[in-house]
Design goal:
Length: 332
């Protein structure tokens, strides 16, 4: 299968991104032809007034991808704005897309509500999912790994593919396949305080932080408030550390923790030590690679440059066919 996915540049990634998205990408890159890109234009739809936000986070994010094992030998890694064909396809799609299709995409009204401090009553923001359709269809991707909130965008993409094929490919083979969503199950890992892990809540474990920083965060992580003293019994289900154990601990360890917490035979620090061993084992190799990669940013840029070129070749091939379909295939 050909797989495509994009991520808005949001700077240094945290463990929630790793468990929720990147682990899926890692699996996919082994058996499929993958294109993974930085959606910097999508970043500008909300950050148009502070464009440096998008630029500043970009290389940190790419380095995090590489550190976790996204492999440029297996996947094509590129930056959306370096393949301007996406914008041309977005424009051509905009002519044939009814406004009502965009207005009814659920993320549209949700995001305007949630990001009230920003004026998102713009032309470009309404077109956000249509630009995403262009991202996907320009590579004629078969499947798109997405979280639940993005499923309507893939659904719109299928409608756009159908409409294009119907309008411009009568009597000839369709140009665009209809991509399917590969739904990535929502990560079971919460933030350190039990809410969703998110930079805006300040409850993250940052992939590229030091082990010292991680250790301190785990040691100060809240536990079941009923365990005021060491010999107060607790309820793991009321404790965010337990949510982490459900992701990391073995079955035996989970049984031991259940028993130890509810009978007060282990203290919270002992319990956290079990978690820290698992986290250290997972994060240390990522962090070692990250330090090495950071020291070779020029190589990272060369790698992305090659990815941009490869993506662009592929996108150009589709655009030649698109232009012919809409009678813009002029010859001079
Ligand atoms: N909209 C996606 C997000 O917010 C990012 C994105 C842009 C994307 N273009 C894409 C994802 C194409 C998958 C395919 O996360
Ligand atoms: Fe949470 Fe573990 Fe303490 Fe129980 S023993 S409250 S599960 S940290």
């Amino acid at each position: 299968m050909r797989i495509l996915s994009g991520m808005r540049s949001s700077g240094r990634l945290h463990l929630g991104h790793y468990k929720g998205v990147l682990e899926n990408w890692l699996q996919l890159q082994d058996k499929n032809e993958c294109f993974f890109f930085v959606a910097d234009w999508h970043g500008l739809t909300t950050e148009y007034a502070n464009p440096s936000v998008v630029q500043d986070g970009l290389w940190d994010m790419v380095m995090d991808w590489l550190a976790v094992g996204i492999d440029p030998e297996k996947a094509t890694i590129f930056i959306q704005s370096q393949v301007p064909e996406h914008a041309e396809l977005h424009l051509l799609f905009s002519f044939m897309t009814p406004l009502s299709w965009l207005e009814r995409v659920p993320t549209y009204k949700d995001q305007i509500e949630q990001l009230r401090e920003k004026d998102l009553g713009t032309y470009g923001f309404l077109g956000y999912p249509l630009l995403q359709s262009a991202d996907i269809l320009i590579y004629r991707a078969d499947a798109v790994p997405v979280g639940e909130d993005q499923v309507p965008h893939v659904e719109l993409t299928r409608e756009i593919a159908r409409r294009f094929n119907h309008l411009y490919r009568q009597g000839i083979p369709p140009l665009f396949p209809e991509p399917k969503s590969l739904l990535m199950p929502a990560s079971k890992l919460p933030g350190l305080d039990g809410r969703k892990m998110s930079k805006s809540y300040g409850n993250t474990l940052v992939l590229s932080e030091t082990w010292k920083e991680t250790e301190k965060k785990i040691k100060t992580m809240p536990t079941d408030p009923a365990r005021v003293r060491r010999d107060d019994a607790g309820t793991p289900e009321k404790c965010p550390v337990w949510d982490f154990h459900q992701v990391y601990a073995t079955e035996d360890e989970q049984a031991e923790i259940q028993q130890g917490c509810t009978s007060a035979s282990i203290g919270c620090l002992d319990c956290k030590k079990i978690l820290m061993q698992h986290l250290e084992a997972e994060l240390t190799p990522i962090r070692e690679r990250r330090i090495d990669i950071t020291a070779h940013l020029d190589d990272v840029k060369d790698m992305v440059k090659a990815g941009n070129e490869k993506a662009r070749r592929e996108a150009s091939r589709t655009m030649d066919k698109v232009r012919k379909s809409v009678k813009l295939g002029y010859k001079f």
